[in-house]
Amino acid sequence: MPSTMPRFKTDFDKFVVLANLERRGWESVDDYDDSWDIYWASVGTVKNVFGADSGTRLQHGQLISHFPNHYELTRKDLMVKNIKRFQKQVRREGKPHGLTAEDLDIIPATYVLPQDYALFVEEYRRAPNSTWIMKPSSKSQGKGIFLINKLSQIKKWSSNSSMPPALRNSSESYVVSRYVDNPLLIGGKKFDLRLYVVVTSYRPLTVYMSRLGFGRFCSAKYTTEEGELDNEFVHLTNVAIQKHAPGFDAAKGMKWSIHSLRHFMTTRHGAEASNELFHNMQNLIIRALLAVQPAMINDKHCFELYGYDILIDQSLKPWLLEVNASPSLSASDTSDWTLKFALLEDVLDIVDLESKREPGKIDLHMGGFDLIWDGGPVMRFDKPTSLPTMLGAYNERDRNQLRPKEDGPSHLPTQRPKRAAVSVPTSGATSGTEGGPPQAPPGAGGAAFAASLF
């Protein structure tokens, strides 16, 4: 008798992905078999699937893990273009969803090179002492990023030219952004946040946000000294960079769960300020998606998991740094594995390939994810309430999972499958929500809490 279990295909050799798919009893198909129900694919594969010459026609019910032109959000240059376009539209035509142009002030001043080079030079000369950060438009993990505070640091790539040939002749563009040089510090160190969002449709826009996430810390104390502009361990939080820092402790990993961060922010700044900050981060996520919505190809066969990178400044304003179409699913330790396994398990519940949801029912909570936009705001979008967002709140994912009642609570594996070994940390900061960093007792000082990490 033929199996009725879903069939999957993946080009991701990541244990988090494979373990999730196999644990459900789903069947794997080989590389040349197109009878899959779900394809967890790389962005390169998706480009080929939806390419004009591919000849591929997806069948009813097939799902693939990226939208055809996800790059409208996940390429830094296109994200900037779309946010600026939407901001101009709001300023010119009115207030969609009650938004003003000021509400879309979610990215630092940014220019795309080479085409905006003259505009950048004009802006630079208005504030010649500013620091700027340059990033390749389509690279990740901190590759190719550097800071500048003099135009000559760009011009030195070329002689006798007002525009570097590395920019003028390259097929890859760069973005140059005003560096946020007043970041909020914890333990004297810069950090940013990795937050997770799932979009199942762009028309209507349907968005789920995970309560999971983590802060990524630099290993060296923050300084604005000119001699340290080239020090990646001071300025760039990417784990791929920080793991090479002198004295890097793999057990600590320089990560902190979003739940612990919210606890710390409440302890240090008070509940009202903390709630407003997390509410503003949720709004930032939605506003970036609204900005790219007109440009996105909405395909009923698609869903996507995004990794948002957000920086908080000293005034507790969140800034969007970038959005990743393929957020890292590699696990550095047991807690990281637990977080990412839970994340993928919840994403698969959201897409509901086995049709376990009641027909017509809208689930506001799916595992560790909350539905925050469904053609319009689901939770309060215009004004913070006592708890305006569940980001970083207590994670009730066991209660909100899609599973038969007789299955009982979900027990996530605390290590990778037997096919690979895992190093189990004994202490330190973690990206998980269980077994994480020491929790501050009621009334404990924020400084003491932060000091326990470093």
Automatic annotation (TrEMBL):
Q: Is Nucleotide-binding among the key words of this record? A: yes
Location of the protein in the cell: Cytoplasm, Cytoskeleton, Cilium basal body
A matching Pfam family: TTL
Q: What positions does the domain ATP-grasp occupy?
A: 96-352
Biological processes per GO annotation: microtubule cytoskeleton organization
For this record, an example GO cellular component is: ciliary basal body
| Chain spans, region Disordered | 396-454
- In this chain, composition skew of type Basic and acidic residues spans 396-409
Its primary localisation, in coarse terms, equals cytoplasm
Q: Which UniProt keywords apply?
A: ATP-binding, Cell projection, Cilium, Cytoplasm, Cytoskeleton, Ligase, Microtubule, Nucleotide-binding
Q: Does the keyword Iron apply?
A: no
Q: Which domain of life is it from?
A: Eukaryota
Instruction: Give the GO molecular function terms.
Output: ATP binding; metal ion binding; tubulin binding; tubulin-glutamic acid ligase activity
Q: What protein family does this chain belong to?
A: Belongs to the tubulin polyglutamylase family.
Q: What is this protein called?
A: ATP-grasp domain-containing protein
The record lists the organism as: Chlamydomonas leiostraca
Query: What high-level taxonomic lineage is stated for the organism?
Result: Eukaryota, Viridiplantae, Chlorophyta, core chlorophytes, Chlorophyceae
